Amino acid sequence: MNRVTRVIPVDPTRPDPAAIEEGAQALRDGKLVAFPTETVYGLGANALDERAVEAIFEAKERPANDPLIVHIAHIGQLNLCAAHVPAAARKLGLAFWAGPLTMILPKRPAIPDVVTAGLGSVAVRVPAHRVARALMEMSGVPVAAPSANRFSRPSPTSAAHVLDDLNGRVDLIFDGGPTEIGLESTIVDFTVDPPALRRPGGLTLEQIRVVIPDVQPVAQRIAADQPQLAPGQLARHYAPRATLTLYEGESGPLVHRLGADIRTATAQGERVGILAPDEDLMALAPVIAAAAAAGRVEVRPYGSRRDPARAARELFGALRDLDATGVSVIFATAVGPAGLGLAIRDRLVRAAEGRVKTC
Ligand code: TXA
Ligand code: MG
């Protein structure tokens, strides 16, 4: 593990070629390089170098049965990774790459098993971020990269987040400022027919449906007020240190119930964190003011119901920030399920590990 981590600032739109070449060389040398993409920061290694890929799992403390996404510079390199590309996948790639889309395809033997956790399929993405693409172009190798966070922490949307989680565990971090989308890529699985949405993300279901009308939406994981699910049922989650509960429903009943729960929790001596879009915070203002007077509440707004893109961009940072305050419980609300709201809700449901209260 013990690595000396160096942070290299880069212009996100016009990165310095000398800096990129240094990162490309590091990748060719089997080193770990964190870099910005338009979704979140990735922790990259040469996908064809088994030892380097193993080091990713070590650095993140990620279980080996959790496969990685392979990043390529352009759609023309798809054949390096995929044994077969169905027509629908090609169509989707042409429509939305470079961008926040990952496709699961049958794997070529050249991709080592350690990348795909032994699966017969491989996840591939062409990121749009200039720094990410320049690294892939100049290194000449496909880059395996999960999100650059410690396992079960929220994905990093800034170089500071990467440093918080991986200082001493990664060789280089390219700091290109905050990421634009703030949520991970959308994953579509083309090893099944019709293709299935495996993870909602930065590319919306509505956008995908324009090109592939029969895409199967992601299975609804959580029903109303369902207690804890078995861990396996929740796939991977983003576990804050505090216990997070997600509140959903019509504004009136939601504010009523959440307000009551804030009062109860603070009266019981809990330090309460509130993670919500502007509109919900406004409606809760009197309750929050009372709890704040007693010094028992931390509030982190993330975007607005009217602006899901801003909500997406701010969610993970607000979650990390709130967790760092040492609150014991977090009460969160989501934005509506349309567009990016689907991915926002998905991440909050995972963070809640099944604690979803429908009001
Ligand atoms: O936006 C993103 O997708 C970011 C940036 C860095 O590209 N990456 C990212 O990677 O979020 P990661 O590893 O945190 O999430 C990738 C997900 C994992 O949940 C993994 O299980 C799934 O993709 N995955 C990878 N290969 C797969 C495969 N062959 N079959 C099914 N799922 C796969
Ligand atoms: Mg991740």
For the structure shown, list the relevant keywords.
binds magnesium ion; ten-stranded mixed β-sheet; five-stranded parallel β-sheet; 13 helices; 35% helix; 15 strands; globular; alpha/beta; Rossmann fold; 359 residues; 2 domains; binds threonylcarbamoyladenylate; DHBP synthase
Query: Using DSSP, what is the number of strands?
Result: 15
Shape annotation: globular
**Count of discrete alpha- or pi-helical segments spanning 4 or more residues:** 13
Indicate the multimeric state.
single chain
The ligands bound in this entry are:
threonylcarbamoyladenylate, magnesium ion
Measured between the Cα atoms of the first and last residue, the distance is 47 Å
> Helix share of residues?
25-40%
Here the CATH topology of the largest domain equals DHBP synthase
Say which CATH homologous superfamily of the largest domain is assigned.
Answer: DHBP synthase
CATH class group of the largest domain: Alpha Beta
Q: Identify low-pLDDT runs.
A: 222-235
